[in-house]
Write a structure and sequence with these properties.
Blueprint lengths: L2 E6 L3 H10 L7 E7 L3 H11 L3 E3 L2 H5 L6 E4 L6 H10 L3 E5 L6 H13 L4 E4 L6 H11 L6 E9 L6 H4 L7 H16 L7 E8 L5 E10 L3 E8 L8 E5 L2 E5 L8 E4 L2 E4 L17 H13 L10 H18 L9
Parallel strand pairs: 1-2, 1-4, 2-3, 4-5, 5-6, 7-10
Antiparallel strand pairs: 7-11, 8-9, 9-10, 11-12, 12-13, 13-14
Helix pairs in contact: 4-5, 5-10, 8-10
Length: 334
């Protein structure tokens, strides 16, 4: 039986997700429904991507008995509210990153998933890429000895994009792209909580972070350094340095297709898209879709690649970084 998907939100990421799905066997995955707040938009999207059903409200999708999982691709300021709608309706959910605006909201989503006994995963698609699977395998066999330092960079000039810079839209470098650097560090250190976090950054006039540098210290004298910016292009790679060598995830580190282990490079090419994409390497969204399918087939309620505990810790770290840098959202006082 194919996994039947319901897409929530007819924006850019849902477009790319739909294109990525076309690279997977139709017997395994099928997009059954697209829901938008505008029926016209949903119908237009359905026509473009060959989706049989279109809804003009999220509630209709929440009440549809014929879908296995909802892909939540709305703006992250809406994740908490709309996510709870689906979870309380007994739907499995793959929620785009960042999971929500702060750790309180994330814990609400996790609690709702557990209470309703449904699957929930934050769509940190990076974790499902073959490159990241190989990194985990290399670390498990201590291929570079003991890891001492992890560095991750992500900078992309996007000051012209409203959702990146406006506070009401949950803007800032941290929530949009810094999340990728931080999740990489947590993956390398197996979801361990850092002993200390030091962050400094500069803000835009709108009050969101433009560029941030974070240094984290972990147990056994291990460190991590992350730098992210929505004002400048950065190397966008990630390096794991150990006592016996190094692993380098070549840019774009959040959706990588190449890995260098002790100077030896291996490529992991992506399938070509059937339609133009909005974001880099988006056919790689196929990997998280397949990860979800495998979890559902096994009856799991969360993904071992991106456990809910990792998502909670990730958001707690982001809360602390925002506190140090001085970014406050209206959701923080709810």
């Amino acid at each position: 039986m194919a996994t039947r998907w319901g897409l929530c939100g007819a924006g850019k990421i849902s477009h790319d997700f739909s294109v990525a799905m076309k690279t997977l066997p139709p017997g395994d995955h099928q997009i059954a429904v697209i829901a938008s707040r505008s029926l016209e938009r949903a119908e237009e999207f359905a026509k473009k991507h060959g989706i049989p059903k279109a809804y003009g409200s999220y509630e209709e999708l929440a009440n549809d008995p014929d879908i296995d999982i909802v892909y939540l691709g709305v703006l992250h300021t809406e994740h908490w509210r709309v996510g709870l709608l689906f979870l309380k309706a007994g739907k499995n959910v793959l929620c785009e990153k960042p999971f929500a605006m702060n750790s309180t909201q994330v814990k609400d989503l996790v609690a709702a998933a557990k209470k309703n006994n449904v699957f929930l995963m934050e769509a940190i698609w990076s974790r499902c890429f073959p490159v990241h699977a190989e990194v985990r395998r290399l670390l498990a066999e201590e291929a570079v000895g003991e890891v001492k330092l992890v560095k991750a960079y992500f900078g992309s000039p996007q000051l012209h994009i409203p959702r990146s810079v406006e506070k009401e839209l949950g803007g800032g470098a941290l929530l949009d792209i810094g999340v990728y650097c931080l999740q990489f560090v947590l993956m390398v250190f197996n979801g361990e909580r850092p002993e200390s976090i030091q962050a400094t950054g500069v803000l835009l006039d709108s009050g969101v972070d433009e560029s941030v540098v974070v240094v984290m210290k972990f147990s056994r004298k291990r460190m991590a350094f992350c730098c992210f910016s929505i004002a400048a292009r950065l190397p966008n790679d990630a390096v794991i340095s150990g006592t016996k060598g190094s692993i380098k995830v070549l840019g774009p580190m959040h959706c990588p297709t190449a890995l260098v282990v002790n100077d030896k490079e291996t490529e992991y090419p992506l399938p070509e898209p059937c339609l133009p994409l909005n974001f880099t390497n988006s056919t790689g969204l196929r990997y998280e879709a397949e990860e979800v399918r495998q979890c559902l087939l096994k009856g799991l309620k969360e993904s071992p690649r991106m456990p809910l505990a990792d998502s909670v810790l990730l958001t707690e770290i982001m809360d602390e970084i925002r506190k140090q840098v001085g970014v406050v959202f209206s959701q923080d006082s709810q």
